[in-house]
Design goal:
Keywords: Coiled coil, Membrane, Transmembrane, Transmembrane helix. InterPro entries: Bact_polysacc_biosynth/exp. The chain has 501 residues and is an alpha+beta fold. The chain has 15 helices and 4 strands. The protein folds into 3 domains: 116 residues, no CATH class; 150 residues, Bacterial polysaccharide co-polymerase-like; 129 residues. The chain has a 4-stranded antiparallel β-sheet with strand order 2-3-1-4.
């Protein structure tokens, strides 16, 4: 089991190896104290920014980004290389550390700065009012530098938030204004296109189909009437031709009868036909010839009547051709009506889409203008520096005490470990109980060890060495801690300007 088997063995070990243990404890303790006091002090300062949301501001119509998103964008812009280099130059950081590269300085400043968001209680994370405050914390080796850095970043957050929001509103306003103008021109051009298309396809429009159907009915009736009139004129012409080939003399009674018959036909025609109808004109001319003494004019009258009938037939044929042409046009237009209807529906949908887009752009532009007015009057959501950072009186909780305590425990462990190793390298039975446990037999006689003069001198030197060692360790600890007046500690920096100081 080894030479250490009981508490008495352990106490005996400590007494024998006490000079070694004290030496390691004193040296380890002094080293721990030196490392603790030589580590730089870290001061921490914090600035608080409040998210001010006035009651008159309508968050549902806020055209800006939510506060949490704005904080993320601002933090990203604050931590870029260019801005951090400006902060380092503005505050003269790392003046006593020229050996640090630019990337190392930026990394040190970035790691010593924290931007924390405080959520509003009782508000969902995706709400525009989810953020209540922002805490900016900076660490440095001097309290003044820590406060200056925190205030610098806080001012940057407040100023940049307003600048970013104003710039974003101006950009949105310019874009929406140009888009509104473009859509207005597009709507006007589309309206002209619809009018031109409607005028070019007037007969094929869905709204014209009922009228075209009525017109076709009227054309059919008119064509029937014209056919009837043409047939009547053709009969009259045949009768005149038959009369011109017979005797030219007719009794007076027959002439009077013809005049009366012509008057009756003219009266009937006037009751049924329009005054400008060709049939009425023919009957009036025939009546005038009969009254002028038809037998005396003879062949001349017949010739004039024949010419008049031919002229009327030509006019009626022209009217019939016009009606036929119009009927063909209507039929073609009705055949193209489905295609024209689809194209017109497409134009209507495009027009509605442009109008909806124009209405949406106008609504957004009105919101942006309202937001701009609120910002000018300081009535919009804004960041307010609620509490500026002040120089802390004491350094932040550091690892100095923990480092010193850990060093002392490590020294104790090292000292005891060294003593155990030496003891195991030289296993000696020093007491009767150890002998009995080792061989299983109790010794018959056990004589105590008698010290010689040499042993006494060695013990005296040990005691003197331990006393001097303890005194040296005590004064060394006071010196390292800076507790001796007029004797500065080598671990305390006289001008703390290195690093972030």
């Amino acid at each position: 089991m080894g030479p250490i088997q009981s508490l008495e063995d352990l106490i005996s070990l400590v007494r024998r190896r006490l000079p070694l243990i004290l030496t390691l404890l004193v040296v380890g303790g002094l080293i721990s104290i030196y490392l603790a006091v030589s580590s730089p002090r870290v001061y921490e300062a914090a600035a608080v920014i409040q998210i001010d949301t006035p009651a008159i501001a309508d968050t549902s119509s806020d055209a800006s980004l939510p506060a949490s998103r704005r904080v993320q964008l601002i933090e990203q812009r604050l931590m870029v290389r260019e801005n951090l280099l400006q902060v380092i130059e503005r505050h003269g950081l790392f003046a006593d550390a020229p050996q640090l590269s630019e990337s190392q300085r930026i990394a040190a400043l970035r790691s010593s700065t924290r931007i924390e968001s405080i959520s509003a209680p009782g508000v969902t994370a995706d709400s525009r009012m989810s953020l209540a405050a922002i805490v900016i914390t900076s660490q440095a080796e001097t309290s003044a530098t820590a406060a200056a850095l925190a205030n610098d970043f806080a001012d940057s957050v407040v100023n940049r938030d307003r600048e970013n929001r104003e710039g974003r509103i101006v950009e949105a306003q310019n874009y929406l204004t140009s888009e509104e103008t473009r859509l207005n021109d597009a709507i006007a051009a589309h309206d002209r296109k619809v009018v031109e298309f409607s005028s070019q396809n007037e007969d094929s429009l869905p709204a014209s189909q009922e009228y075209l159907q009525a017109e076709l009915t009227q054309i059919a009736e008119t064509e029937t009437t014209l056919e009837r009139d043409i047939m009547a004129l053709q009969r009259d012409r045949l009768a005149l031709e038959a009369t011109s080939t017979g005797e030219d003399t007719r009794p007076a009674a027959s002439l009077v009868q013809q005049i009366r018959s012509a008057e009756v036909e003219l009266a009937q025609a006037r009751r049924t036909l329009a005054p400008e109808h060709p049939e009425i004109a023919r009957l009036e001319a025939n009546l005038q010839l009969l009254q002028a003494g038809g037998a005396n004019t003879g062949a001349v009258a017949v010739l004039r009547q024949t010419e008049l009938i031919d002229s009327q037939l030509k006019q009626l044929a022209g009217q019939k051709l016009t009606l036929e042409t119009r009927r063909i046009e209507i039929e073609r237009a009705r055949a193209r009506a489905p295609q024209v209807g689809r194209e017109l529906d497409g134009l209507a949908r495009e027009q509605q889409r442009l109008q909806d887009r124009y209405a949406e752009i106008s609504r957004q532009l009105a919101q942006v203008e309202a937001q701009q007015l609120l910002m000018k009057n300081d009535q919009a959501e804004q960041f307010v520096l609620l509490e500026r950072a002040i120089a802390p009186e004491y350094p932040a909780s550091s690892n100095r005490k923990k480092s010193a305590a850990f060093g002392m425990f490590a020294s104790i462990a090292l000292a005891l470990g060294a003593a155990f190793i030496l003891e195991f390298l030289n296993p000696v039975l020093r007491r009767s109980k150890q002998f009995e446990k080792a061989v299983g037999t109790r010794p018959i006689v056990s004589l105590p060890y008698r010290m010689s003069e040499r042993d006494y001198r060695r013990r005296t030197r040990r005691r003197i060495y331990m006393a001097v060692l303890l005194v040296f360790g005590f004064f060394g600890a006071l010196w390292l801690a800076g507790k001796i007046p007029g004797l500065p500690s080598p671990g305390v920096v006289s001008t703390p300007t290195d690093g972030l100081g």
